[in-house]
Hints:
The chain has 487 residues and is of the alpha+beta class. The protein has two domains: 2-244, no CATH class; 260-477, no CATH class. Helix content is 24%, strand content 27%. The chain contains ten helices and 21 strands. It has helices spanning 2-7, 61-77, 87-91, 166-181, 213-220, 237-244, 300-318, 325-333, 407-421, 462-477, and strands at residues 19-29, 58-59, 106-108, 111-112, 121-128, 135-145, 151-160, 198-209, 260-269, 272-273, 276-277, 287-289, 291-292, 295-298, 353-355, 358-359, 364-373, 380-392, 395-403, 438-445, 451-454. It has a five-stranded antiparallel sheet with strand order 15-19-9-20-21. Strands 10, 11, 12, 17 and 18 form a five-stranded mixed sheet that branches. The chain is globular. It starts with a helix and ends in a 10-residue tail after the last helix.
Amino acid sequence: MVNELAISGNAGGIRPMVVRWVITGEMILATAAHFGGEGERLADMTLLRDPLDEVTPLLPGTSIAGALRSHLADVLGGYFSDEDKAVPTLFGASRKNEEDGEQSPLIVFDSLGKLPGKKIEIRDGVSINPKTGTAKSHMKFDIEVLPAGTVFPVRVELIVEKIAEEADLLGLLTKAVSGLSNGDISLGMRRSRGLGSVKVRNWKAKRFDLINPDGWVSWLTSDHVNPIVNETPYESPVDALQSAYPALRLEEPPDDKRERMVIELQLQLAGELLVRSPGYDPAAPDAVHLHSAGKPVLPGTSLAGAMRAQALKIARCVRESQGDGDEWIDQLFGPHFDKNQVSDSQKPRASRLRVSENYFSNGDAHCRTRIAIDRFTGGVVQGALFDEQVHTGGELTIKLELRGPTDAETGLLLLLLKDFLSGEIPVGGSASVGRGVFRGTAKLFLNKGMQYDIGPDLYVEEEVMNDFNVYIKSFREHPLSTEEVPV
């Protein structure tokens, strides 16, 4: 009877199953993350929590599945392309009104997180006026974020209806979940600004053969919470699958069709940095540099905001004769408009330039006492004495990624990179007193395997400079694309 049910068709609405795969892993947040929820709490934007205890952080399976699907579609078809026809075979129909769509063979479970002994963090958010470079009035908000080091167990199950489809489905699945291992997938809010970076380790896999009764019994008697107990963990999901079923022969993965420009920056802080964060201790200084997971951090939001402001100046200068500098910036960073003045023709778009955030190594914290001076009397303003705890010195690595770049956009990014590495783009607060200046080196990885190095003090080889000039000339002369940038 078991064999007949397993290999029969969809008689009586029963879903046929010949094999059931269970794959688990341990996902660790490499940076802070925000998985949005609702509730009456101190922050404007709260985290999603387990409804049973209203404390434990919750990561819905729908969020993980959506990220996996998007990553697989990008790898198979390229950024901003129509979804490859192979994607629905693993994830099912993309829209509910698709009459010929099929149910997804992949089941992605919700996950409850475990904090690394640290409290949930609060981050301040502000909207910056691009003309003045200062915060807009009444546009400050608070966000709850999970600290780096928070652990979420990952569990997916793959139902195979036909033996002949098993290898193909597993090939697509490994291509999707590999993005969780190599850092290509981020989760939650503000992914393009460094939040939600994850890394999955300790992959395990178990194959239940449902053609024979022993397989069904093994599946039915397994722990419904932790069905994989004694399997060896692996760093790669492919290795875990091969170990669970040595006879498996996965298809060669298709070529990665994503086109992107990646920049790895090795930076040194020249002086002090202050990205203000809310204080948790009544005895703390009036302003404290932002820490995450107990370590000083350069947030991607601050870096991206400073870069956008400088890129706007560059674009308006270089493209002055064409008068389209603002449109170039909107195509890279997403449109920047007042939400109270949005027209029907304006559509929000995610930034194509992704900016990571990272932690400082070395460096130190110092407290500075400042006063406000009355510009008429030259004396101290009454009650205007305040303390600031700044971060001084240190190094860190930052990654920039421009998705679907053109030669002209590469030229704009090169000009922006020159200003940043030469210390002309201060980051954070108190830039007027010399804070937030960085210098360093860069490695550029372009399409078609091209790689360039920018050394200390902007040193590059003559051949590299000639190539850079071609890109910059393209930005100066190339007409702005009239094609709509994908949302």
